[in-house]
Design brief:
Helix content is about 15%, strand content about 40%. The chain is mainly beta. The radius of gyration is 37 Å and the shape is elongated.
């Protein structure tokens, strides 16, 4: 306390009494510069108490001297924490204000108790209790112990919505990061009540409504009440949706010189008659701003305006481009990044220090930083600069782990059991680079791959990278061959807009195709007989129509012709356009990709190949999503060459489910149509699919269902059909002489009849353009082992010699 003094006389000296550890000059420093009237003395005393070094301060006057009598706080000898297991001590100590060798203050200890309780509340331990005990050590110092009883987990018992009519509670809950407690709560932390997380979820809900035309939407209230009976929080969110509006008239005006309204109108993404979309308005403002800035108007400010017409439930939009305030960016400060380098953050800005300030560009930079995945949180704020026309941008970020080590196991009906391991880093050495090494080992497939990507190649906003790979595939159940491809790819990606980009790639790889010829897989014994396996005239039983080198399994002549090493040197482009709302689990938007490629820059292959795919996602109702897909491809040999087997397309069940790999398309039916798949030069197909949740199941289980219909075809085999010296192609040396001349009519020389019973000199190709189609149902599971998909498809249209496979199971990932 302080003594109330009359008058405001200045003291000639300040006498300090009672101090033991604190230097007298330190005490006097609290009074220096103060006019020693009552107000000045009160300020000094408050400052002394706030320092935490004193438990009592008394001030009196003796003549012209000020007497300051202090009682010092005790010194903390040691701080310990007991009872904690869910939160490590090294996480708690930095949050405590009570420090070893610091002054002891009961008020500070009490506040530390509350800090610990808040930490436990944020991890879902609302029942935790904390107490502090003190003991006096022999040296007079104090030991402080924080005793924690963690209690049981207090999750979110329920999330309830009121006032929602346009979207069901299930749909709104799926928008949120917070979830309700359920049987899987021991695997997750998203069911922990956190006020900050709730605020972020409410913003996600708000943006969802504004994106779907509800201009007047607002959150009336949100309340989280802890229920001791339920041992969890009950969250109630009251909404006022308002009416859904559509876009009426759209007007664009410009008050800027050299900026024509017609130029800006091409950037408008809000079309009359469509549902009002606040996100489309933001993107329109951003696109107009960028366009005007490129045309020499860096201070442009595009102002959107909306005039509601309640009767027609439309909103007339107007965009006005005007010159904004002439404010410059003085400095960009990056804070909180302990691992990521400053330049990784700064390069996401399309403006730099000294450039004209533009809010649209700052908002775009914030979105880009959040989408990187490097940070837990990103916030861009402004501070005044050194002059009225200067502003300082402050970027506050918090790094998060970006490395991943995964070991996985999976199974597919195509490749069998597959084991996978990979290590990846999205933010290599804090430079924002991506590096991944992974390998797989399965019954029919093995691979290893190293990938590296620099997102800002040579300092420009374009990605550059490479892939090095080796892949082994056993196709003996489809076409009686084994292949190994080894090589690499150089990549360059150039974003043209936020939605459209172009990729450039160059690939060089060697494909080694081998025809097995062993006692278990005698697929080439018509040419290279295997003693004791290949039937002959002298074997027992003797070679016959039902027992010969063909009946024990033989590769097609097309496969044998392709055997050996083929070097492919190709260059290609990728054109990608996407407006998907979520790359991982899309619910709306487009994804289109076109990939032309030319092989012949050296190597053995000479062809032009192009393939493409378009997907459209549309929300049908309350988390029910429709998807339409169309795809196609074409390959043609160049320079008078003939396509090799490995150059063809052979999409199989990835195009039409219900068919086996290599189950439809051109095939050699000379002797075994089941294993004579050749592939084709042309394919196209389409899919219609509806995905839906299983209502009542927690979304954390990750189960969804789907109904689908597929249709497509593969045709036009353009590879070699005749194998003899007359057409410049000679295949091997047959053990039994056969005629080599091609019949004038173009037919085959028959050799699989008596007395030869061996392989002929040509293919009997069945090549149908018939459309194959199927319908079916799927079960999609985001399992702890990664995404799994179970498809059951029933073919409703097929052709002769097609092979079906009703059930298909694929998946596996990291765990």
């Amino acid at each position: 306390m302080s003594l109330i003094l009359a008058g405001a006389a200045l003291a000639q000296s300040i006498v300090v009494q009672g101090n033991e550890r604190v230097d007298a000059e330190t005490v006097r420093s609290y009074f220096s510069g103060e006019r020693l009237d009552q107000a000045g003395i009160d300020r000094a005393v408050r400052a002394m108490y706030n320092s935490g070094q004193f438990s009592d301060v008394r001030v009196s006057r003796s003549g012209n001297s000020i007497i300051v009598r202090v009682t010092e706080n005790a010194i903390v000898n040691r701080v310990t924490i007991s009872g904690n297991s869910r939160v490590k001590a090294d996480q708690l100590f930095p949050e405590l204000q009570t420090k070893s060798r610091g002054p002891f203050s009961q008020a500070v200890v009490d506040s530390d108790v509350q800090r610990i309780l808040e930490i436990y509340r944020r991890i879902g331990r609302g029942d935790a209790t904390v107490s502090a005990t003190t003991d006096t050590a022999p040296n007079g110092r104090i030991d402080v112990t924080f005793n924690i009883v963690e209690g049981s987990k207090t999750g979110i018992y329920s999330i309830n919505f009121e006032g929602n009519n346009a979207f069901g509670s299930w749909r709104l809950k799926n928008l949120m990061q917070m979830t309700e407690s359920n049987l899987l709560s021991f695997l997750k932390t998203s069911d922990v009540y956190d006020p900050d997380r709730l605020a972020a979820d409410l913003d996600l809900i708000r943006r969802h409504y504004l994106k779907n035309g509800f201009i007047d939407f607002r959150v009336v209230s949100s309340e989280a009440v802890y229920s001791p009976e339920r041992k969890g929080y009950i969250i109630t969110i009251v909404l006022d949706e308002g009416e859904q509006y559509r876009v009426g008239n759209v007007e664009v005006s410009s008050r800027l010189p050299n900026i024509d309204e017609r130029q800006l109108r091409s950037r408008v993404l809000t079309t009359p008659g469509s549902v009002y979309n606040a996100e489309a308005v933001e993107k329109t403002v951003e696109a107009m701003t960028m366009d005007a800035a490129r045309r020499g108007q860096p201070f442009v400010q595009v102002r959107p305006r909306g005039d509601r017409e309640a009767a027609s439930k439309t909103v007339n939009l107007g965009y006005t481009a005007d010159e904004g305030a002439r404010i410059y960016v003085e400095r960009i400060n990056v804070r909180g990044n302990t691992r990521t380098r400053d330049e990784v953050v700064r390069r996401e800005f399309e403006l730099g220090e000294g450039d004209a300030y533009n809010k649209a560009l700052v908002d775009r930079a914030e979105r880009r930083l959040k989408s990187l995945g490097f940070f837990k949180s990103v916030k861009i704020s402004q501070e005044p600069g050194s002059a009225p026309d200067r502003v300082v941008l402050v970027v506050d970020v918090e790094d998060q782990p970006t490395g991943q080590f995964s070991v996985g196991v999976g199974y597919s009906t195509t490749d069998g059991i597959i084991g996978e391991a990979s290590i990846a880093e999205q933010n290599l050495l804090g430079r924002g680079q991506f590096l991944r090494f992974g390998f797989t080992y399965g019954q029919r497939t093995r691979s290893a791959e190293l990938s590296f990507t620099e997102p800002y190649f040579l300092g420009y906003r374009m990605s550059g990278g490479f892939d090095v790979f080796t892949r082994y595939t056993d196709n003996s159940n489809i076409s009686r061959y084994i292949s190994r491809a080894t090589g690499g790819t150089l990549r360059l990606g150039v974003p043209i807009t936020e939605d459209f980009g172009i990729g450039i790639r160059y690939s060089l790889y060697n494909t080694q195709l081998t025809v097995p010829n062993t006692t278990r897989d005698p697929y080439n014994d018509c040419n290279v007989p295997i003693f004791g396996i290949t039937p002959t005239e002298t074997s027992s039983p003797q070679k016959s129509a039902v027992f010969n080198c063909l009946t024990n399994g033989e590769a097609s002549l097309a496969v044998k012709e392709a055997a050996g090493n083929t070097v492919t040197s190709s260059a290609g482009l990728n054109f990608v356009y996407t407006t998907l709302d979520d790359r991982k689990n899309p619910t709306s938007g487009w994804l289109a990709e076109l990939k032309p490629e030319v092989a012949g820059l050296g190597g053995d292959s000479r062809f032009f190949r192009i393939s493409g795919e378009v997907r459209y996602y549309y929300p049908i109702w309350d988390d029910v999503v429709g998807m339409l897909k169309a795809s196609g491809g074409y390959v043609q040999a160049l320079g008078g060459n003939t396509l090799r087997l490995s150059d063809n397309f052979n999409p199989g069940p990835s195009l039409v489910r219900g068919f086996a790999p290599g189950g439809f398309g051109p095939r050699d039916i000379s002797y075994d149509a089941n294993t004579g798949s050749l592939g084709g030069t042309t394919y196209f197909g389409g899919t219609a699919e509806v995905q839906f949740p299983f209502f009542g199941l927690p979304k954390e289980i990750g189960l969804r269902g789907a109904l689908f219909a597929d249709a497509g075809t593969l045709f036009d085999y353009q590879g070699y059909k005749f194998f003899n010296t007359l057409n410049g192609r000679t295949y091997g040396t047959l053990t039994t002489p056969i005629p080599t001349a091609v019949n004038p009519g173009g037919g085959c020389v028959a050799t699989n009849t008596a007395p030869l019973y061996t392989q002929g000199n040509c293919l009997d190709v069945y090549d149908s353009r018939a459309i194959r189609a199927s319908i079916g149902a799927s079960l999609l599971w985001q399992s702890p082992l990664g995404p799994l998909r179970f498809d059951y498809a029933f073919p409703i249209a097929r052709s002769l010699y097609d092979r079906t496979q009703y059930f298909r199971f694929s998946g596996g990932g990291s765990f």
